Amino acid sequence: MTTKQLFNGRDMDGWQMLGRGSFRVEDGLLVTEGGMGLLWYEREPFGNALLRVEYRVSREEDNSGVFIRINGAPDDVWYAVHHGYEVQILATDDEYHRTGCVYSLTTAPAGVQLPPGEWNVLEIALRGDVTDVTLNGTLMTTLGPDTEVPPQEFPYEPERGPRPETGYIGLQNHDGDSTVAFREVSVGPLP
């Protein structure tokens, strides 16, 4: 597998938007706007691969995420939440809900996301049923079949259970106050 750029910097060719929120292409970037939404790559699902995402937030409280292992083509924004995994982007929440965790399933350390306006490099390694998340060169979390997962605490947290080893990916637009920009979304071979 060679590295494949999923966002071409010009338009959303190959992507499909769901929900009331949206993304716009501005100066070669994908930028979130509006309310809750899911922009998912519809051309193909991905299995064993390294997903690389470069993003920046405009303020520390900005909320977004990268969805992986979505089991089939989503038909609404909540499908990806409950039938995929979300790698969280939100610097200000607790260890189960902050940048670099698999949302509400694993923990991540604080203080690794760079300040607003600076570019972050998020790498998500998909190896069979194991997911490793690295942010700016720091291993943030690992989710696998032996990971001890806490019970679902809130209805907006994902349903518990395994996801497929091959699935679609997506980007989350969380809310109208958050502005997150993405300049690279690529998939390549595992190191």
Helix content: under 10%
Number of domains: 1
Portion of residues in beta strands equals: 35-45%
Structural class: mainly beta
Short description:
This protein is mostly beta strands and about 190 residues long.
How does this model look, in words?
By secondary structure, the chain is mainly β. It has a single domain, classed as Sandwich (Jelly Rolls), CATH 2.60.120. It is built from 1 helix and 13 strands; from the N terminus they run E-E-E-E-E-E-E-H-E-E-E-E-E-E. It has one helix at 77-83; strands at residues 4-5, 15-19, 22-26, 29-33, 37-41, 49-57, 64-70, 85-89, 120-127, 130-135, 138-143, 168-173, 180-188. Strands 1, 3, 4, 6, 9, 10, 11 and 13 form an 8-stranded antiparallel beta sheet that branches. It is globular and about 45 Å long. The model has no long low-confidence stretch (mean pLDDT 97).
SSE layout:
Layout: E1 4-5, E2 15-19, E3 22-26, E4 29-33, E5 37-41, E6 49-57, E7 64-70, H1 77-83, E8 85-89, E9 120-127, E10 130-135, E11 138-143, E12 168-173, E13 180-188
Antiparallel strand pairs: 1-13, 2-5, 3-4, 4-13, 5-12, 6-9, 6-13, 7-8, 7-12, 9-10, 10-11
